[in-house]
Design a protein that fits this description.
Elements: H1 16-34, E1 39-40, E2 46-48, H2 49-56, H3 61-66, E3 69-71, E4 78-81, H4 86-95, E5 104-113, E6 125-134, H5 140-155, E7 162-167, H6 171-187, H7 194-202, H8 204-207, H9 216-220, H10 231-246, E8 251-253, E9 265-272, E10 281-287, H11 291-294, E11 302-308, H12 309-322, E12 330-334, H13 337-352, E13 357-359, H14 366-375, E14 380-384, H15 386-391, E15 393-398, E16 406-409, H16 413-418
Parallel strand pairs: 1-5, 7-8, 12-13, 12-14
Antiparallel strand pairs: 2-4, 3-4, 5-6, 6-11, 7-9, 9-10, 10-11, 14-15, 15-16
Bound molecules: adenosine-5'-triphosphate and magnesium ion.
Amino acid sequence: MSTELRAVRGMNDILPDEAARWEALEETLRTWLRSYGYRNIRTPLVEATALFRRAIGEATDIVEKEMYSFEDSLNGEHLTLRPEATASTVRAALEHSLLYAGPQRVYYLGPMFRHERPQKGRYRQFHQVGAEALGYAGPDVDAEMLLMCHRLWKLLGLADIQLELNSLGSLDERKDHRTALIAYLQSRAADLDEDGRRRMHTNPLRVLDSKNPAMKPVIDGAPVLATYLRDASLRHFAAIQQVLREAAIPFRINPRLVRGLDYYNLTVFEWITDRLGAQGTVCGGGRYDGLFEQLGGKPQPACGWALGIERLLALLELNRQSQAIPQATVYLVNHGAGAQRAAFRVAEALRDQGLSVLQHSGGGSFKAQMKRADACGASVAVILGEDELAAGEASVKPLRVLQDQFRVTERSLAEAVRKFAGGH
Ligand code: ATP
Ligand code: MG
């Protein structure tokens, strides 16, 4: 086939077998978003170039080198294929006075375009799902967004996505930091790469976002923004962390996290994994209280995130490959001497009901047994302890769906377990 009739480099066809996985994921995403009250918004794929220049910022990777911009050959308008959808969402909210009736939670899902070097996990047409909480000052809504993402990883069975968090403070605080940062970068000018030297004055914070490994020593020595934050910003940041701790969601504060777009303030975060090589950021977001005003509207606080669908699918695919074919439906965990003996009876009774059971043997702690249960691919762990035995009951812990452990009588155990059989 002649090369000019192939798909454009970095833009992929998604054929029916693969598209089926996309549809299934999109369905899960929509249900999950709705369960937090987010409603769909759809904006055009093409916007005036000026929108992205104003919203994202001139001295950013996206605006400097990644935008597909062109002149409308009919009327000469400067247009751009959207590289992200926050700017479009805010534009639409302003244009249609969407916040007139109060704050809004909205989400979008669709293709974005960036002229990058194509590689695994990085394409020129890629897809994002994203949510924007418009008109909310936080920190409650910021925290809710993090809980929400965490729930998605659990729903999808993705265990190793880590949260990195930072606060960029207010405009004033950033100004003070900026002065110190420029002075520092000037003193290290000889060690900066070309981008760094150019951005040192226009957008020094962005220099810290450089992916060039040679820049790392310079970045490591730079003044840290966190030390410039004052009371209100610190309180906002602390409140988010408190919600995370109460929800037992682990996180790491990364003082170097600045994100690649100009519009962020206060909260910024990324969810990252080391299973996708260099393209390890699955989801990124933060607060952008200045954007409405920057686009000519009345100031409105807002917060949002965007998640790369291709990267999410790549993670799901890795999981699928590494998941052992389940050895049995039930893994029977026991602790206590009495429970160990009772386990034989319970296992045989479950097998009588047509269920496959892997009975733990060889001793070991409760924790070690639960690990085995997970590793063998079983749908549920059935737990027999002294407590359960005394009550003539067993505990059931579903292993492949998001549901808490619960207790049932021995007699209704088979029926309870069967609900989860083959659920993966
Ligand atoms: P990266 O650091 O990987 O370039 P980014 O900071 O440019 O990401 P954002 O603009 O925050 O990314 O977009 C949010 C998410 O969209 C990313 O975390 C990633 O999952 C996905 N994404 C961004 N650019 C691409 C791309 N070119 N191809 C595939 N997915 C992408
Ligand atoms: Mg990028």
